[in-house]
Amino acid sequence: GPLPQKKKDKRKLRHERWLQKLEGCRAVRDSARAAERRKKTVVVGDMQPLAAALPTLPMATGGEPDGSKQDATAVVKAKSNPRTLLSEVDHFQKVLEHPAFQADPLAAIAQHVRNAVAARKT
């Protein structure tokens, strides 16, 4: 059979298992808090399912997977200009009210991306 362990080793093993249990509980709690925080986002809501699907998108379009600096500056400019931000919020509200988006949001977004890629190629 196995060799008898020393008391110190048993204690260390117990302590490590206890720390793993704590870490597991902490991870569950943190992910629940993050989901709650995303749910409270006023305009967007929980975008995590969409964000999980997006890393495959740049590869399909032939773009860079890490994004470009131009997109980041566009976001900063949109935030600095309240009028643009309001028009984008209004546009997003129209998207949320659209019947195709309400019926199947992911399919509507996928169709929009396909259309945008096709428009970019022409």
Written overview of the protein:
It is a single chain. The mean pLDDT is 80. This protein has helices at 7-39, 48-53, 56-61, 69-80, 82-97, 99-103, 105-121. The chain is 78% helix and 0% strand.
- β-strand amount: under 5%
The helix/strand order is HHHHHHH
Using only CA atoms, what is the Rg? 23 Å
What's the total number of strands? 0
The number of helical segments is 7
Helix share bin: over 70%
Which consecutive residue ranges, at least 5 long each, have pLDDT under 50? none
Backbone structural class = mainly alpha
Basic shape:
elongated
Average pLDDT score: 80
Distance between the termini: 72 Å
Write the layout of secondary structure elements.
Layout: H1 7-39, H2 48-53, H3 56-61, H4 69-80, H5 82-97, H6 99-103, H7 105-121
Properties at a glance:
mainly alpha
Summarize the structure.
This protein is elongated. 78% of the residues lie in helices and 0% in strands. The chain has 122 residues and is an all-alpha fold.
